[in-house]
Amino acid sequence: xxxxxxxxxxxxxxxxxxxxxxxxxxxxxxxxxxxxxxxxxxxxxxxxxxxxxxxxxxxxxxxxxxxxxxxxxxxxxxxxxxxxxxxxxxxxxxxxxxxxxxxxxxxxxxxxxxxxxxxxxxxxxxxxxxxxxxxxxxxxxxxxxxxxxxxxxxxxxxxxxxxxxxxxxxxxxxxxxxxxxxxxxxxxxxxxxxxxxxxxxxxxxxxxxxxxxxxxxxxxxxxxxxxxxxxxxxxxxxxxxxxxxxxxxxxxxxxxxxxxxxxxxxxxxxxxxxxxxxxxxxxxxxxxxx
Length: 290
Known about the structure:
Layout: H1 3-42, H2 47-52, H3 64-71, H4 78-109, H5 115-124, H6 130-143, H7 151-154, H8 163-174, H9 179-186, H10 191-202, H11 204-220, H12 223-228, H13 237-244, H14 254-274, H15 276-288
Helix pairs in contact: 3-14, 4-8, 4-11, 8-15, 9-10, 11-14, 11-15
């Protein structure tokens, strides 16, 4: 068997293997994305059609579910709930990035007594169930007379409470050579300038990952706003969607709820796909460096 025949056989085998891989990936992608496609079709259906057919294409496209869903059954439109969500999410994202970056910088670039012990405590909080602190925190905010405000939802992020983000940034920052710091010191930079001008620009993938995770988690957070907020005018999107599915009235407009759920997904999807490359880089680098 000559070399050309062997090369043709190898190329044919590679082509067959690649074809099967792509078929498997396409089938898996269809299975994964079908629920979203079905929700999109269901948002244009009536309640009877939603429960009467498994197909995702409606018989007639009816946009009234989006109009009525946006108006909601309360005195406020869905725009109010979206604005409330952003009042919570945006400060949380900003404070998380700032506090976790400063904490990670301290653990990776400074030496102080008990450094390893305190870092161990931070990592240990990763294994602490949130339900354990739920009642003590509620009692604390009640004594501070801060219930039914956004303070209990936002203020803890000023103190780097998200230990997962601290750990990820520490891992990423450990992979940045200290020679950069030394060169900056020679150029006259102080510690804060080293962080701002040298380290943070190099940590862009990790910081974008923090932003994505915190944004998505905060947008989807249902329990904490439910615990601390009691005024309908202050509810975020997650609670507004739950109010729309309240079966106490005997009728649940599922098409409207599904329509508003899809709209609620848009900010997270736009942010994720616009920063997907940096997200992958940040997750991979944060996991292997250190």
